[in-house]
Amino acid sequence: MVITKAEVTKLLTVIASMYPRFEVNELKISLWYDMVGDLSYQAAQMALKKTMLTSVYPPTVADIRAAVADITAVEQLDAGKAWGEVMRAIHKCGFYNPEDAYKIMSPCTELVVKQISWREICCCEEIGVVRGQFMKMYDSMKKREETNKLLPASFKKQILELTQSFSMERLVEKNEK
Hints:
By secondary structure, this protein is mostly helical.
């Protein structure tokens, strides 16, 4: 269940009571509602408590969204553990069974492996080089994933629509040439 505007008002009132210089007004309520309206009230409330316990400054929308992402996050693999998944898959499935190998990897690990190529990983004589490339790509993908989690669903939809319209414009321009 998503947060209501009245619940956003409650959150902002709590912030104002803890931080005297924080003012609540209709514009601020509307902006906050637009930015956190996809969160549940319980998650936003817990995030607010967490930020108030860890910061001397009033929380921002970014602070609340980051705290919600942190509170609700399931344990993630780091790049080293993900590389361990790759090594186990190589030993268990070998070069000729990439589809079986993908089944025993986490989705993010699988995606990075596919970007590098299963063949390249299995046949490489300098496994340390491939390991380094994998770890950089994995960390980059995780960072992008974490940033994406902070964005409201409505904003992600707007970004998708915008990128699709740009893609269509480029396609039309390309076909006109």
